[in-house]
Amino acid sequence: MNCNTPTDIGFSFAGFRQRGGGTDHHEDGFGIAFFERSDSGRLGLRQFHDNKPSHLSPVADLINHHPIKAMNVIAHIRKATTGEKNSLANTHPFVREVWGEQWAFAHNGQMTDSFIRRTQRLHDNGNAEHYSPVGMTDSELAFCYLLNRLKSTFKSRPSDEALFAFLTAQCRYLSANGLFNCLISNGHWQLAYAGSLLFYLTRKAPFGEAHLSDGEMSVNFGDLTTDKDKVTILVTIPLTKNETWQQIAVDECLVFQDGDVVFRDTPSKKTYLSIEDGIALARSVGASV
Amino acid sequence: MNCNTPTDIGFSFAGFRQRGGGTDHHEDGFGIAFFERSDSGRLGLRQFHDNKPSHLSPVADLINHHPIKAMNVIAHIRKATTGEKNSLANTHPFVREVWGEQWAFAHNGQMTDSFIRRTQRLHDNGNAEHYSPVGMTDSELAFCYLLNRLKSTFKSRPSDEALFAFLTAQCRYLSANGLFNCLISNGHWQLAYAGSLLFYLTRKAPFGEAHLSDGEMSVNFGDLTTDKDKVTILVTIPLTKNETWQQIAVDECLVFQDGDVVFRDTPSKKTYLSIEDGIALARSVGASV
């Protein structure tokens, strides 16, 4: 979620968490990172990770019962493909500090064996000096690869334009070395890269009613919002059936800020996968959608 | 807490959280980091941070009601002296990844203005390349200083002996530049450095009963433990009255592993502050005990 006003993710999370062992099989833990603003506007990060399936987790109950209003949220439910199940160290989102900002990252996909071996070798030889994975997933390895490239290339924070162009190029490289869908946020912006399947929806005035695909829940956002609110939700597979979700093209990179698209890099030839084809592609490389 | 078997910190936390706005005035948020072992023995980190006072926080309720069994825990209740109150970015423990390990850090004290200015200048000039503070506290600045010195000195992880000696020297430097009590853990060991006040207690067989100083709560650890369990609790001010707490000397550094002291560096002249003198010293430099 990326929005222009502190927003409670409760409705989307209520549907999403059901996919963690309820309506779907992503039952090997979950994680969620909330970027919140203090009274003076300073960003802070609150993280929850649990190795229990999200549809049963007491931590997920807390998130549902005590709504947290945030500017940016990244949530991930895990189906273990690489690395131990039920291990906290393997649950996304992964977080690292970059130039005094917290960066959160979630990945859906599967990096190739040759990428994993090559990148692991860089770490073993001491040539990945800034960041190293804590857990055993290909995803955290890809995140550390991307951040090591970033810190080696820029001594200090570049302009947003240079940063987004650089991150797009790195995501394209990662997508060429595996199945790579990701979300990255520093709390100010949220970057979405679609290696296969990724959708988004921007809710703004006039707000209507939404019905969850994964549960008996509806909400009329008109009752909960002001006319100025703008809230963008990004997901692998749409959470509601009665709203029009936009699909991100394969190998397209978008960056959102205050609920709006502020950067877009689209491949010259736009392609879109059907949800069925996206799921089949994930299965064929041993990943999970 | 540092122990040799996964242990629930519930009893100590029940007393500790009362000091966050209940029996004491540390009401500007709290944080707690749990290092847990997965089934295969791999360490993961679960963090909770809240900008609400710990004695009222729903996050603290969750921790009390759903006991989490961990090998190492660092908890901190905050009384803001430097940096905005009620800001998530300013709540301890601070966490950074070091050589593929999560390191958690909590500080009690106050760094001098000249240390803050000097260290801030290193960051502004790009001479603190590995870690930068996210929030506005002197504590996170001290932690980043220590980790930047560590990464600049050792390209890869040194032996524990070399590491503990280096960390002791850095803590001594920080203690000479402010009031500096700290706890640091990578999940395997926990380092305690006493700039003024720090106590510890090791509970092991034969286990007895303990009564909280901050609430109407007693527990007979004999009912909850096995004869092999060894659990060390480290605190600024003892949590119970009927047990014998060991005081750590001023500028002494201890490292605990599996509940035992595995490293100790004591100044040639041992001094101990009374709790009253420790509180007075903290107040005199604008810190809070």
UniProtKB/TrEMBL annotation, chains A, B:
It holds the Pfam family GATase_4. The keyword Transferase applies. The keyword Iron-sulfur does not apply. Transmembrane segments: none annotated. Residues 1-289 form the Glutamine amidotransferase type-2 domain. GO terms for molecular function: transferase activity. PANTHER family: GLUTAMINE AMIDOTRANSFERASE, GLUTAMINE AMIDOTRANSFERASE YAFJ-RELATED. This is Glutamine amidotransferase.
